[in-house]
């Protein structure tokens, strides 16, 4: 049984067709990235999965349960972001406790808040929180009760690069625990860094569903480059792999082939010199993920 199955999903708002015909399968245990330009229909799809919005036609099933007919059963197994708005007069701890009570979970709110980097503000009210802090708090709420499926709509919105990196770490940890993760984003490098597979939504339809590597191969697009140094140490290699956006770094002698977004290349070159190595050559064989994305969405 799949974690999430969308079949012929359609949604019209009056004359506006938000979803034309969405078919998508998210397998159990995978991290699935839901990509698409603004207005493609990502939030509408997620709202249907969470039963905030009813489809005009078609169905959404979560672990075999119909999202509309068996909303209760679905919600027991799902953690979602953003699921609730924040209440300015409540503390971070009270927000998380509220969700724990609603879900009948005995999770410790403080432990969850520490996990998302809010350990020092557990008793602060949300009205003083920045956008990024609010996003972290919502993530802590989504993690309550170890959900089997995490549904994250633009989880990195409002987060600085550190916050975005921590978000990726938590996605990986949740996945390692056994959770399936479904998240939408238009930040391609974020998706590439953590996802097993992606679905690309364009104009209310899924135009591609595959691993990014296979999509690349299918379109002939690649975004790798090779840096050759005089001496490649483990420290330098670890630093390269730590650069945000680096999806892959493979070694051949003193050359390292790195897959990353174009705008991270300078950071990769800096990282490879961490241990004092001298760069001998840089060979770029380029076609970025952005171009891959544009190939499928017609540049929208
Ligand atoms: N309540 C609504 N009433 C009318 N039109 C709507 C409504 N909600 C969404 N739409 C329209 O449906 C389409 C899909 O919107 P949706 O928010 O799902 O896209 P999205 O991919 O999440 O975009 P973004 O990345 O900008 O959040 C858009 O054309 C949007 O204007």
From TrEMBL:
Claim: Nucleotide-binding is one of the keywords in the record: yes
Cell membrane is among the record's keywords: no
Keyword terms: ATP-binding, Nucleotide-binding, Transport
Record domain ABC transporter: where: 4-228
Entries under InterPro entries matching the protein: AAA+_ATPase, ABC_transporter-like_ATP-bd, P-loop_NTPase
Single GO term (MF): ATP binding
Highest taxon above the source species: Archaea
Residues of the signal peptide: none
Name of the protein in question: ABC transporter ATP-binding protein
Highest classification ranks of the organism: Archaea, Methanobacteriati, Methanobacteriota, Stenosarchaea group, Halobacteria
């Amino acid at each position: 049984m799949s974690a999430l199955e969308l079949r012929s999903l359609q949604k019209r708002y009056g004359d506006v067709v938000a979803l034309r015909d969405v078919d998508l399968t998210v397998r159990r245990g995978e991290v699935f990235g839901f990509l698409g330009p603004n207005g493609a229909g990502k939030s509408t799809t997620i709202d249907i999965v969470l039963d905030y919005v009813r489809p005009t036609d078609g169905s959404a099933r979560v672990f075999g349960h119909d999202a509309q007919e068996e909303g209760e059963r679905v919600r027991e197994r799902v953690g979602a972001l953003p699921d609730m708005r924040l209440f300015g007069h409540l503390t971070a701890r009270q927000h998380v406790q509220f969700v724990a009570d609603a879900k009948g979970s005995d999770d410790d709110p403080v432990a969850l808040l520490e996990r998302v980097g809010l350990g020092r503000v557990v008793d602060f009210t949300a009205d003083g929180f920045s956008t990024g802090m609010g996003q972290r708090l919502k993530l802590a709420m989504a993690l309550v009760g170890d959900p089997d499926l995490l549904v994250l709509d633009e989880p990195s919105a409002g987060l600085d690069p550190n916050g975005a990196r921590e978000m990726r770490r938590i996605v990986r940890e949740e996945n390692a625990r056994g959770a399936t993760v479904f998240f939408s984003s238009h930040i391609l490098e974020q998706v590439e860094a953590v996802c097993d597979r992606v679905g690309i939504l364009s104009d209310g339809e899924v135009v591609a569903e595959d691993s990014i590597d296979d999509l690349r191969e299918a379109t002939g697009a690649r975004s790798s480059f090779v840096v050759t140094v005089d001496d490649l140490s483990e420290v330098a290699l670890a630093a390269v792999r730590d650069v945000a956006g680096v999806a892959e770094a493979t070694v051949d002698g003193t050359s390292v082939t790195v897959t990353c977004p174009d705008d991270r290349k300078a950071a990769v070159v800096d990282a490879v010199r961490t241990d004092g190595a001298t760069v001998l050559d840089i060979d770029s064989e380029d076609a970025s993920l952005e171009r891959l994305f544009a190939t499928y969405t017609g540049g929208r």
